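Re: the 316-residue chain
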Amino acid sequence: MSLNESAYRLARIVADNPQLGIEPHTIAGAEVLDFGVQSRGSLAAGLLLTRLCMGDQVQVALQADDTAGPALQPAVTVQTDRPLLACLGSQYAGWPVQADDYFAMGSGPFRLLRGREPVLESLGLAERSNVAVGVLESTELPTAGAVAEVANCVNRPAEHMTLCVAPAGSLAGSIQVVARSVETAMHKLHECGFDARQVRAGWGVAPLPPIARRNDVVGGIGRTNDAILYGGRVTLWVDVDQTEVERVIDQIPSQASRDYGRPFAEVFKSYDYDFYKVDPRLFSPAVVTIVNLRTGAARQSGRLNPDVLQQSFFDS
């Protein structure tokens, strides 16, 4: 079964459960599930949104964690045995969905139907499916023009699409962003020239920050990014020559970036709120462990930074 089909089956369960705080809409023929734009959302909705975003190839949960301070806080854990497809093929926000009257960062399995991304092309990631499921990070529901643009890009009728929408500064949206701990490590590996196809499994955890004010877009983006950059821990199981692990291990954690050390909202502001000006080496977990199944060797790099987490979560 394709990732789009797996996500579509899950979406049927989500859409039929009013207790999740999700509001369904039909826009230009497409099913649109509001996880936090106008709806209240919920913790359970955030966990399900993460599964949808990863083509339902993941286990995700909330657990107790003290990374961000002395008191226990919730943290988002993810676990997948299909990290290539679930993370780089689906979860990575590699599609800027843009129409004349709308913009959102697109992730989810519908990227595999569109295909026009360097990461997908270089890894040969694609699939066929009669249905398309995507996640839009936005403070607004998609317009009719945006739905038409997506339908054209995935080459599917709008009636065969399910679009899930949530801003980072919402309850469900914050969970699905913080759940990208493994994905950020996978993408950094790929950018460092490591063969991501040799990653056999991935596990990650990052603290769930307080929700920013509803209209504070930068605050929502900042806190959820800080959770991974300064509090994320990831373990990857790989099957490669050990020299490949030694070559990349110190390049993976966020501390390898020149922009490391400040809350992301400050970094973002210093670049005039342009993501593409931020050092791309920043977008990765605080601590990464790589276990080589071929050699039995484990290597770890990076460090947690609770001071920045305190500043981001509780002092701002």
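Residues 3-313 form a domain with the Methenyltetrahydromethanopterin Cyclohydrolase; Chain A, domain 2 fold (CATH 3.30.1030.10).
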